[in-house]
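Q: I have 420 residues here and want to know how they pack in 3D. Can you give me a structure?
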Amino acid sequence: MPDFVQMPQLSDTMTEGTLIRWLVKVGDKVDVGDPLAEVETDKATMEMVAFDEGTIGAIYMDEGTKSPVGETLAVIIEEGEDVPDKPAASDQASSSDDDSESKEINDAEEPELIETETNESSSTDNSDGKRIKASPLAKKIAKSKGVDLSKIKGSGPGGRIVKKDIETAGSISTQPAPSTPASKPKQTLTEHDQRISLSGMRSIIAQRLLESKTQIPHFYLNVEINAQPLMDLRKQANSAAGEHDNKFTVNDFILKAVANAAASVPQVNASFDVDSIVQFGSVNLSVAIAVDDGLVTPVISGANKKSLLEISLAVKDLAERARSKKLSPDEFSGGTITVSNLGAYGVDNFDAIINPPQAAILSIGSIKNTPVVSDEGNIVPGLIMKVGMSCDHRVIDGAVGAEYLAELKKRIENPASMLI
């Protein structure tokens, strides 16, 4: 039977993609795993591959078109099959909702919920005796948050209430109604001005950072760190390295220190999750890397268990492939704490916006020659680096954040410990 090629979800935050370029044409034969098209997501441009073999029977979507996840883009047919029409939007939406609901229940990791989903108990009576269709997971979350199901409009198949409906309702009910914004003054553009359309990546960056800044209660901590020992050790290590050996950057040491400190103070390596806090067992470092169209945050998994050399090689590889748009979707997912370093750009200090659903992001400033007071009370030349920490106050209290920064400071000022 025909295999419809749909816009895949190539990252955990992707809701739509831009079809940059078709790599096949109608009549081409394809095998499983063959690249079909280049798709721009919110994080990178990636290849979309075939999940079936056959012949490209039709291409329904033009290059340069934005499509939501799940929309049919093309069809692969077997020999002798007729080319079908593109499925109606309602059919695609139903299929997408079913997949979303299935994933939602699987993510709950509760076998009894999966079993319940197959029988009539997924419906509930309201006070008027009318049936309310809701998934078991949605009902569980509604009960824990005290949300009245009868007042919620479901977005799932057949109007069923699903997890995201409860979370949206809970968010609305616990937040004050926003004041009506003043109308935005209209700007008159001149012939020298230009309007630049948002790319998929830029649009998602705008959306996620707005959500982070408005939905996560940020608070900020800052500390000054003596970077002289780190710079001395780095100089010695790179001087001893051969011509073709890896050269360490300041950022390599910072990443190693951030990961080790997070393992020592695990309360910061966490995430807020509706009615609980998830504390992660592994430190997966999200590293902010500037690319042509914005910012990406690929992940170094298990960074707390990697050596300084392994981290150095990993971040160089990620940065190179990020800028050439060659990263895979799984290399963006699973981060537990983020590091953003603008020191190389001459920025002394700044406060970064948290990368949800994480609870903390470190902002690293430049290293400056600064007069400091020695242990003997004398004013001497010193190298000072300012480090900021933005925290989700639902997860991290001030004392915990301060404890973490003290641990980070200790490791950077005693960098030899990172070589062990």
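Q: Anything worth noting?
A: Residues 93-122 have pLDDT under 50 and may be disordered. The chain has nine helices and 20 strands.
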